[in-house]
Write a structure and sequence with these properties.
CATH superfamily: Alpha/Beta hydrolase fold, catalytic domain
Protein name: Thioesterase TesA-like domain-containing protein
CATH topology: Rossmann fold
Oligomer: single chain
GO molecular function, one term: hydrolase activity
InterPro entries: AB_hydrolase_fold, TEII, TesA-like, Thioesterase
CATH architecture: 3-Layer(aba) Sandwich
GO biological process, one term: lipid biosynthetic process
Helix content: 25-40%
Radius of gyration: 17 Å
Structural class: alpha/beta
Distance between the termini: 33 Å
Pfam family, one: Thioesterase
Length: about 240
């Protein structure tokens, strides 16, 4: 696959919002958000190897996946852009921001959603027995109904889901520097993974930060896509003349 992303909304102003998916997610996961976004900004969403239509092998090391994204997105870094990442995508966003800033490349702004800051210990979830792992996924609200009805279908996706969770469980940030980019942090008021008071601790890594809470659980960018899109659109409108 030459480009591991999909355009979800064309740009009307030469500016692009680049979206990084959560564990088990892929480009179409953000279709609802892109459709609800009332902005002239374009939206592209990443299609990780082994996810969606990307038939390349899964990448077990998240640093390697971030390196792939950095390489394949190079052309986008020379036009105005912003980043959005939820959960695993939030880890990707922060680490990629540090890499880009080290190179003197600065996004217009960034959004990190549903992820705890680097100093907070993350649970080791990828090695749970299948039944416990599935219950965990259900508690996050991220399993489609058809997966719950058809166990065989779910089992087809378990290797990909375990790969993604293992990549987060084993991840070590390349650095944990303070960011110069303005970052908006989003949290779900009922999120068991990244509670708002814990998300607030990101401020030590991003002095130029704002915090927003959404009335939802961990999967609020999907289940409350309209509310998240309104927030992003409002931030872009307040920040730029569109």
């Amino acid at each position: 696959m030459n480009k591991p992303w999909r355009e979800l909304k064309p740009s009307l102003n030469g500016k692009t919002l680049i979206c990084f998916p959560f564990a088990g997610g892929y480009s179409v996961s953000y279709r609802g958000l892109a459709q609800a976004l009332k902005s002239n900004w374009g939206v592209i969403a990443m299609e990780p190897p082994g996810h969606g239509t990307n038939r390349e092998p899964l990448i077990p090391d998240l640093q390697d996946l971030i390196s792939l994204y950095e390489d394949k997105l190079e052309d986008h870094f020379h036009s105005p852009f912003a980043l959005f990442g939820h959960s695993m995508g939030g880890v990707v966003t922060y680490d990629l921001l540090m890499r880009l800033e080290k190179r003197g490349i600065f996004p217009e702004l960034a959004f990190i959603s549903g992820m705890v800051p680097p100093h907070v210990e993350r649970a080791n979830r990828s090695k749970l027995p299948d039944d416990e792992f599935i219950k965990l996924l259900q508690s996050y609200g991220g399993l489609p109904d058809e997966f719950l009805r058809e166990r065989e279908l779910l089992e087809l996706f378990l290797p990909m889901l375990r790969n993604d969770f293992a990549s987060i469980d084993n991840f070590k940030y390349s650095e944990t520097n303070q960011l110069r980019t303005k970052v908006h942090f989003l949290s779900g008021e009922k999120d068991p993974v990244a509670m708002p008071d814990v998300v607030k601790e990101w401020e030590r890594y991003a002095p130029r930060s704002e915090f927003h809470s959404i009335n939802g659980g961990h999967m609020f960018p999907i289940n409350q896509a309209g509310e998240v899109a309104n927030l992003i659109g409002r931030v872009l409108t307040d920040t730029f003349v569109l």
